[in-house]
Amino acid sequence: MTSLQFIWFILIGVLFSGFFFLDGFDFGVGMLVKSFAKDTAERDVVIRTIGPHWDGNEVWLITAGGAMFASFPMWYATLFSGYYLILFLILAALIFRGVSFEFRANMQTDTWRNFWEWAATIGSFCAAFLFGMLFTSMIAGMPIDKNGDMTAHFTDYVNLFSLVGGVAVTVLCLVHGLNFIRLKTEGSLRDRALAWNKILYPVLFAGEVLFAVLLYFSTDFFDKKPLSTTAIVVALVIVTCLAYWGVLGNHEWLSFIGSGLGLVSVVVLIFNGLFPRVMIANNPAYSLLIKNSSNSPYTLHLMTILTFSILPIVLIYFIWSYWVFYKRLASPKQDA
Questions:
Q1: Strands of the chain, DSSP E
Q2: What pLDDT is recorded for position 41?
Q3: Please, how many CA atoms are within 13 Å of residue 31, restricted to the half-sphere of its CB?
């Protein structure tokens, strides 16, 4: 394995981490459009909290997929062909979620406005849940042959471990979204988000314990990397505890950063367990490795130069956009 291969494996992990940290609260807020907000005015405020950001946050996912395609074409080919149906459903969920915000704002009738509000809620839930299922089933090992072709059955995708992983990621996104609403609103919405998180965090703790137990029995992470895997699982629990402490003490930034780092910890856990592999096969001899799944050294070298030239500009833009829209939004009842 070369240094450039290692760097690009890490960079893809960083891109997925950025996506789940940023779009994670978008998914959470989207899920809350119908269940959390009580009327049209409150839904307007909830959607406005992520209005300036959600489409930009999805760029992290597009960039991660593009980076995977350019740097590890074998990984991209096996993952995207083997998970074609699940990725198609994720794409449909993301499309419905995205257009729902625009269509809802232009609907003249309550019926269609209600339809697009449900589209935002269901699309956000499905995207978060399916992402969790995809990555969880991937690390459990899939039926991959010597050519890198995956021929999986329903139970390879949908099983107890993948369902628990899907629920865990969904709840992580949900509490992350509630923490973001606490940061972005005032009045009744802010207070309600705090009350909801006081209920949801004990559920999240139970889910994390169950996920850790299934991770031990369903993957080889604890066998191959016992120290680092244990450390990351402990780190996940610690940042969740810090976020919950922030909820109980009404420390909004601590809660938000803690819930975001919880999602990042899951990505780190996955990439740590994968290394030096990129896809885990049921037959270890057929697992795809970093060293034989990457593009040519020249391509990786050129991509590295371009990436580190453009990345600072992108980061400056993201920081600027969040700074411009940092002000809180008032709850409708507060204005009355």
A1: 185-186, 277-279, 288-289, 329-330
A2: 87
A3: 24
